Amino acid sequence: MADHFQLRLVDSRMLVPTVRHLVFERVDGQPLAFVPGQFLQVHFHYDDGTATKRSYSVATIGDGSSPVQRIEIAVSYVEGGAATKLLGGLENGGVIDASGPYGRFCLQDADTHPRYLLLATGTGVTPYRAMLPLIEKLLAKGGREVVLLYGARTEAELLYGEEFEAFAQSHLGFVFHGCLSRQPRAMPRSTDRSGHVQNVLAELGPSAERDIAYLCGNPNMVDAAFTVLKEFGLPVPQIRREKYISSR
Length: 248
Known about the structure:
The protein has about 250 residues and is an alpha/beta fold. Helices cover about 20% and strands about 35% of the residues. The chain has helices spanning about 80-90, 125-140, 160-170, 195-205, 220-230, and strands at about 5-15, 20-25, 40-45, 50-55, 70-75, 95-100, 115-120, 145-150, 175-180, 195, 210-215, 240-245. The strands form two sheets. The chain has a six-stranded antiparallel sheet with strand order 4-3-6-1-2-5, with helices on one face. It has a six-stranded parallel sheet with strand order 10-9-8-7-11-12, with helices on both faces. A hairpin with a 2-residue loop joins strand 1 (about 5-15) and strand 2. The longest helix is centred in the middle third of the chain and has 15 residues, at about 125-140.
């Protein structure tokens, strides 16, 4: 059941010049119960008084099952955007209106396929950050593999990239591929890939018997990857999608 509440900003940092990581706590002091992969909606008004809202995936790394006190999101700046004006200039102690959680872009207990293909671009990687505790439990059961393909133009734009790489190093069965479309790293890593996510996806040879796929981020990537997966024979129920659309 979605709830309406106020959030107070308690910390923030710039991940890259155009993406801000924000940490909130509920003004009422209550924790937030959510399933990793779900999102919140931030409610505000345009300058003319018209009500509007924006959706942001919860990026908090909890234990995967318990409510969390700190609610983390990543916000991309859009030139002239109303949400950018609100969240880009919000200072510690500032309060916003929110509701949630919403969405079904979550890992499903009923899934038994041996490999998970997680694809993302931009801030579309935030739900996978929140899923890390659940992925850890999944891998601990054995017989599972999780591959994260994260597309960015340059190394600097791989949001939370060091966190995912550290997780991959400490968890057998988790593979992180940074897919760089414009410029390779100055010091390339063996797991790096060149080009767009959907092109690298084809190299993995997706199969209906083996894979469950999650697609999150730019609508063009989501649509292109969806097409690739269908061409490899994955049925639609094995492809979960969440599109991130920049709004003014």
